[in-house]
Amino acid sequence: MQTSTTSKLLVSDIASSVDRVPSSYIRQISDRPNISDVDIFGDSIPLIDLQELYGPSRANIIHQFAHACSSYSFFQIKNHGVPEKTIERMMTVAREFFHQPESERVKHYSADTKKTTRLSTSFNVGSEKVSNWRDFLRLHCLPIEDFINEWPSHPVSFREITAEYATSVRALVLILLEAISESLGLEKDRVSNTLGKHGQHMALNYYPPCPQPDLTFGLPGHKDPNLITVLLQDEVSGLQVFKDGKWIAVHPIPNTFIVNMGDQMQVISNDKYKSVLHRAVVNSDKERISIPTFYCPSFDAVVGPQQELINEEEDSPAIYRSFTYAEYYEKFWDRALATESCIDTFKISKT
């Protein structure tokens, strides 16, 4: 059994043949999910209805953004404008991709974190000591025409459906960035204008059933390196957010997206909106699929705190130095996934 599992590249090709988690996935006792400590019934993240964003209630919606971004850094949105059919088709084709024979899926396998289209497992197999119970297909998708021919051609509808989804989600992101920019007291196009030519990546995450989910993670606690993340998840719970010293389970609500702030938003807002820890747990009964869209600056964009949010006289100095997103992104992928983000290495030292 051990020989056959270690020869497999992907956890989805191990999961169905084991009744115990292989040792390479088992975390130290102090670093396990400890599900009994998770708040599954109490506080959750805010839900913002975008229906009135362009109506007379815009100021109220902008206020909701400010509260959600400053107090939680995570929120859900409904009436977001992405067609329900587009969402259904994306989730269906993602499931079809991961249900293909191993020989078809592994055509796209790579451990090279610089590849713009790749199937891999865990997080960064080259730098981590303990593996995570996750496979993922990562895609760059802006501009789509630069990358679509790299994407999987099977299932046959994959490219068409994924392109339609990525385009719809990008339109939503641009609306969100205007609202977030306004909620910071900036001009509505200010955040968008800091991103250079913009960047957009997607991941299709597949978490197979796990025989001992209390011993491992789908993804351990981490913060996102990008600007904002827009997450689509299926009906299976697994996402947890860290708030006020405890983990909170975020249960799926049909036809909503989950939005969270990433490290670049923390820098641009000069710590007003902070990147926040979140993680994915697994279960023994059901597979889970989640599809995050990572929106980010283009690699040549220079990121730094916005001038209007800096005031030396009122004790609001710039907390971070300026840097290119390429510099940040390389630092992020050079290591294993960790609870500490790279962001502290870009802070201006106080002397």
Folded structure, characterized:
With 351 residues, this protein is α+β, with helices and mostly antiparallel strands. It has one domain: Sandwich (Jelly Rolls), CATH 2.60.120.330. The protein is 26% helix and 19% strand. It contains 10 helices and 14 strands. The chain has helices at residues 2-6, 12-15, 58-71, 84-98, 102-105, 144-147, 158-183, 190-193, 263-268, 325-333, and strands at residues 47-49, 74-78, 117-121, 135-140, 199-207, 219-222, 228-233, 239-243, 246-249, 257-261, 278-280, 288-296, 302-303, 323-324. The strands form 3 sheets. The protein has an 8-stranded mixed β-sheet with strand order 1-2-10-7-12-5-4-3. A 4-stranded antiparallel β-sheet has the order 6-11-8-9, with no helix packed on it. The longest helix has 26 residues, at 158-183. The termini are far apart. The mean pLDDT is 92. Keywords: Dioxygenase, Iron, Metal-binding, Oxidoreductase. It catalyses: salicylate + NADH + O2 + H(+) = 2,3-dihydroxybenzoate + NAD(+) + H2O. Residues 197-297 form the Fe2OG dioxygenase domain. Belongs to the iron/ascorbate-dependent oxidoreductase family. Its cofactor is L-ascorbate.
